[in-house]
Amino acid sequence: ASNTPLSITFSEPVEALPSAVVLTCNGNLIALSNVGGTFNGNPPVMTPTYAGALANGATCTLRVNASGIFDLDNVAPSNMAADVVVNFTIDSPPGLTSFSPTDGASNVATNAPVVLSFSERVNIAADAVTLECPVGTPRTLVGLPATNVDGVSLLAAGGFPAGATCRVTINAAGITDVDAADPPDSLPFGINFSFG
């Protein structure tokens, strides 16, 4: 998740330089606080913090520099044996990758399905996708709610009225990804498209 706390556990009490831990995401240095100092709990845990949230979809590297970590027992060796490097990726929100009928489509069959495809598996609430046919007149879409799907094929109850302009509206908050790495959890914005 974009706001997941960082935690580094040591095998024994240590003293850390402020430069001992470095975080980069997409090649950019991320400022950390709570890095330098003495960590002597049971077990000794350092919890570096960053301001704000990490970028959705970012590829990050957390590096613990051995030269900046010293044990407290005054027995050689006093530094960590080697750097520790952890790579991870921040979750991205689900996205709508395709839909049909396409925006502006004409001569759409009255029995055509509304097909939505997503970038990852999602749960879709019953009211997440609405249909107006003609615009301003709500119509029922059959096929919702849906759980753990990467796409749906929805049918307008009774079909589309011949010659009408229809509008599909997707409520971003009603479509959430199934993974536990949140946030982000829902579509980043609502979407609508029209056809006739």
Key structural traits:
196 residues; mainly beta; 5-stranded antiparallel sheet; 4-stranded antiparallel sheet; 41% strand; rod-shaped
Dominant shape:
rod-shaped
Distance between the termini: 40 Å
* SS summary, helix count: 0
Q: Could you name the ranges where pLDDT drops below 50 across 5 or more consecutive residues?
A: none
Largest sheet, described in full? 5 strands, antiparallel
Instruction: Classify the helix fraction into a percent range.
Output: under 10%
Instruction: Give the ordered list of helices and strands.
Output: EEEEEEEEEEEEEEEEEE
Strand segment tally: 18
Mean pLDDT: 94
Q: Pairing-aware structural class of the strands and helices?
A: mainly beta
Strand content: 35-45%
Structural Rg: 25 Å
* Assembly category: single chain
In short:
It is built from no helices and 18 strands. The chain has about 200 residues and is mainly β. The two termini are about 40 Å apart.
What does this structure look like?
The protein is rod-shaped and about 85 Å long. With 196 residues, it is an all-beta fold. It has strands at 8-9, 14-16, 21-25, 28-30, 37-39, 45-46, 59-64, 69-71, 84-89, 96-100, 114-124, 129-132, 138-139, 141-142, 146-156, 166-170, 175-177, 191-195. Strands 10, 11, 14, 15 and 17 form a 5-stranded antiparallel sheet that branches. Helices cover 0% and strands 41% of the residues.
